[in-house]
Amino acid sequence: MEGQILVIITTAIICLIITILWFLFVRRQEKKIYVNKAKELEVDKNLITSTPILLELSKIEPIIKNEMMEEKYDNWQAKFISIKENDIMKIDDLLIDLDVLLEKKEFKNATSKIATIELEIYKTKEKTDNLLDEIKEITLSEEKYRSIVTKLKAKYRRLNAEYQKHKNLYDDMQEAIDLQLENIEKNFLDFEKVMEKNDYTEVVHIVKALDAMINHMQIIVDETPDVLLMAKQLIPKRIKEIQDVYDNMTNEGYPLDYLNIPYNIEESQKNIGKILDKVKILNLEDCMFELKTILDYLDSLFVDFEKERLSKKVYEEIENDFNKKITKTNKIVEELFLQLDDIKNMYDLNEKDLETINEVKKTLVVINDDYKNITGKVGAESCPYSMLQKDIEELMNRLKVMEEDLDRALKSLGNLHDDEERAREQLKDIEQFLKASKEKMRSYKLPIISDNYFVELKEANEAILEVIKELERKPIVIKTLNTRVDTARDLVLKLYNTTNEMIKTATLAEKCIVYSNRYRAYYDEVETGLKKAEAYFYKGEYKKSLDTVLKTCALVDDGIYKKMLAIYDN
Questions:
Q1: Residue 231: how many CB atoms within 10 A of its CB?
Q2: The most confident of 84-88, 168-172, 202-206, 495-499, by mean pLDDT
Q3: Cβ-count burial of 80 within 10 angstroms (0-12 exposed, 13-18 middle, 19+ buried)?
Q4: Which among 503, 443, 569, 541 is positioned nearest to 561, based on CA atoms?
Q5: Comparing C-alpha atoms, which of 482, 477, 540, 487 is closest to residue 509?
């Protein structure tokens, strides 16, 4: 028991020692981190103090030649002293305070102090950098601006050489351009003067002015020949061509007032005058754009002229075709309405057909009126052929739609007449079939004709009479007529088939009886069967007679039916 207690106590002591050691290790590492951070801040402070402000200020002393430069120099020195004696000293004091806190291991307060030092270092570095940039603006000015002006001089020489080489292209602009070039050269001389005085404030203005003037002159030299060429040659020539075409087409009867060409040409000439006035004072802003706009407008007029020529040609072709169609259609509709009463008396027209015919006539009247309006506009100044072409095309489409309705109406009326003619032709065929059936029945002297034949004959005759009545009726109801014709044709065909079947059966039965007589004397069964078949035959029961004789004869000749059928077919 005592041994267990000793083990527990020993274990607790070891854990306590490990905890203490770990705490000490962590604190030591934490202090190390803060110490390293303090060293970094010290380095940042030293970098600020090492900024070469004094070196740059020493470069200023030899070039101080005026009160303004001297005032700037004194101001920069004052700023540098302020940074050194106030801002840097403040950072040094804060760093000392940080070291004290780290010695005391007051890490929480050290964190706040580090943030303060970082902020002060940032503000001080910002002041130092700005001060150095201001000083360098002067110390580097001569080299910088001489380099810029050297490039500007090279650009100016190329510009001037280009201008002198093609001076004849600038017409009455030469005087203004020469004056502007003299101003540029004067500014180059002014640059040298202010550089000698080390007046860098004025140098900046001169360099900017030189850059702007040379860039402007570059535009003048590059664009002026093109502007003058367009304003004085291309556009006036194009206006002359437009005017000539306009006059010729107007004399030929083309209505071109809608293009408003005289007014637009006058405005274009005014704008060209304004552009030339701007060019004389070397103001080329938007000049090229405005001239191109005028030229594009003039070019578009040629497209309009060609469109009018083509539209006139197309209009005349369509109008010619339309005139032929409308004349033909008017004649057809006029004849149709002249015959409409007779057609109504002849045929039972339905309301839909009559409505279609009336609508066609109304539509045709409107189309005729619109056509007169279109032809009346030809030659009117405010109505170009492009508009007339569109109107006549639309009218042609309307006429085509109306013609389709008219064709359907005429087809419907034509079908009535066709149905009547077809009914009359079919009536002749039906009567021929009926006549053939009667003649065939009379040609075979059958002992008895069945009642079925006479019933069908009566029905066929009555159906034919109904067809004749429908054809004689005024107006004819085509639907009823067609029904009557179909019924008569079916009944006559039925009678024709019945006639053929009856004659065929009777003929075969008769031939079989005659053929079988050769076996009567030899077979009693044949004698009995033939008597029975003959009895059926004279009663008019030809089917039973044929069946009986075939069964009887089959006792001695099983191929008799085929033989009799072959004889019948021949």
A1: 20
A2: 495-499
A3: buried
A4: 569
A5: 540
